[in-house]
Amino acid sequence: MSSFFNTPIEFLKGVGPQKAALLNKELNIFTYADLLQHYPYRYEDRTKFYSIKELNEHMPNVQVKGQIIGRELVGQGRKQRLVIHLSDGTGSVELVWFQGIKWISPKLKSGVTYVVFGQPNRFGSKYTMAHPEIEVLTPALQSNHFLQPVYSTTETLRKKFLDSKAIFNLQKTLLKEAYNRIPETLPQSILQQYAFLTKKDAVAQVHVPRDAQVLQKARFRMKFEEFFFMQLRLLMQKKIRLEKFRGQVLAKTDLLTEFYRLHLPFELTEAQKKVTREIFVDFKSGKQMNRLLQGDVGSGKTIVAFIASLIAIDSGAQVALMAPTQILAGQHYEGLKEFADKIGVSIALLTGSSKTKARRKIHENLLSGELQILVGTHALLEDVVQFKNLGLAIVDEQHRYGVAQRARLWKKNETFIPHVLIMTATPIPRTLSMSVYGDLDISTIDELPKGRKEIKTLHQYDANRLKLNGFIKTEVAKGRQVYIVYPLIEESEKLDLKDLMDGYESVQRAFPEFPISIVHGKMKADAKDFEMARFVKGETKIMVATTVIEVGVNVPNASVMIIENAERFGLAQLHQLRGRVGRGAEQSYCVLVTSYKLSKEAKVRVDTMVRTTDGFEIAQVDMQLRGPGDMMGTQQSGQMDLILGDLREDEPILSISRQAAQKIIQEDPELGHEGNQPIKLQIENQKKKSVNWSRIS
Length: 697
Prior knowledge:
Elements: H1 2-5, H2 16-27, H3 32-36, E1 42-46, E2 62-74, E3 81-87, E4 92-97, H4 101-104, E5 113-118, E6 121-123, E7 126-130, E8 133-136, H5 139-143, E9 146-150, H6 155-159, H7 164-178, H8 188-193, H9 199-207, H10 212-244, H11 254-262, H12 270-284, E10 290-295, H13 301-314, E11 318-322, H14 326-343, E12 347-350, H15 356-368, E13 373-376, E14 390-396, H16 403-410, E15 419-424, H17 430-436, E16 441-445, E17 456-461, H18 465-477, E18 481-485, H19 500-510, E19 516-519, H20 525-537, E20 542-545, E21 558-563, H21 571-578, E22 589-594, H22 600-611, H23 615-626, H24 628-632, H25 634-637, H26 651-667, H27 677-685
Parallel strand pairs: 4-7, 10-15, 10-16, 11-13, 11-14, 12-13, 14-15, 17-22, 18-20, 18-21, 19-20, 21-22
Antiparallel strand pairs: 1-9, 2-3, 2-5, 3-4, 5-8, 6-7
Helix pairs in contact: 9-10, 10-26, 12-13, 17-26, 22-23
């Protein structure tokens, strides 16, 4: 059966070697299966003929029929156009061609009834259609009312007569042969429960829909199936991981109790306590933990990670914390060292700029077990970094790492696979977390520490510069500090933006009385650290920077974030930047400065930031604007093999498909029941993935 679908496309009637080579190159269509899965991206309504008097300019493409009552060539040379007057007795419409006039003109004859398909546009009292589809009315066309599928194609294919209509004709040819060979991939129990069309009917109706209702049912079934097998794969991976990979039992809490009693500087929020309990349950289970900890900027993920580290250390294990940048690794190290010193836990920092002597000492102390927490960048992944007993690997902002990189950290303990805690301050919309991290356990810190005031976000236009400068002076006079962030480092001829140096000079002119720092990505690390340190100590009052401070130093006294050309930043970036302020007890502000000219998307981004500080709501809007693939980066989006399904629009279908997959796994984990054989076959037929995503989180 599968050999039929693997047949090279050149053997389909109407294709041949030359067209096959074009389909291979332009659309990645190599086999019958590839063509069958090249689904329409929209449909044109051919179910109705409109009379010309019914036309209005708000209609999409419509179908009319009529006869030619006149023609004229208007203009000269390149500006020449062919105008055909078509009437159906209720009125007339002008059909206009600007190109291909010599080819189309001789084909159009008076006294013949034509079917015309195009978009009506109004000029004065007349309606026109530019470059419409036109063909002679036949009995078949008269009775053939259907939704016309529209397929993506390319300019190269169109030139070789492989436009959308030609692809549709190939699909019809293929469906005649393929229809009865399309195997059912879902069990009868699911087909009955959701009143689904059979697989062969669903495929046929997606390509040649009888009407809008049947098309909707067909697409629903096909989307459900895509999500169902994605969820099944993730849930099976999770099940295998829990069964196969033992985790070190980390259950001692004496150190933690001492920390709670003597050194915890503040009361944990209920959300932090809940997450800590979830981690502790995993540690005691004897199974390897694979947990994603998501929480907004400033929600207190790091202290939860430290508490988890204390349980691991008390139980005789070591901890690695990996961060994507030297600045962030340094911040984690400084923050945790304060606690670690109080409780007598040894901690070290390892980055690319660590000196050889310090590295040697770290390597020795790791192997002897004397060093209990190692914080660092991807320098932690080097083969020379060997632990005595790595029990917990904490990865911060994990979307910045490749899968293979994380896998190397995973292999640092040969006896037990380390428990993995992934932290992210970029909240992930539910649909995305179910699809990409469906095999991970997800913990969420959804409340801010007590005493934090919500950051006030304002939108200011460039023209109100004096008012903005007055506001900055007032805040600095109160003893506060200010970030001013620019999107570029150097002038770009293409983008009309203030570059950083120009901005820095403007700020110096506007505030001659205040000491000012500058930080950007092209500075050497030590110069950057020096400037950061001055700002942290309060020696400078204003920090002019690029987005290098997006994940950066915690400065509780910095209470104002000015983002210049805010329309140039993505939502996630704006949210991360805003999170640099609001760390202290004072009221903090984020001011988004833009020009008056804003694109529709930029306006949505700015309005969203002003309206809410809820990272999950912001992430949802971000996904609607950018799409799931862009949010995840190619590393993860590559595993979302979705053709029809759309994570932005199809959350209800994803939810029911996950429930159905969970039920199957609970009732028949080995897929041994006869009724589940279609699922088993489909899983075996699906391309084997070379990477096991669950094992490398």
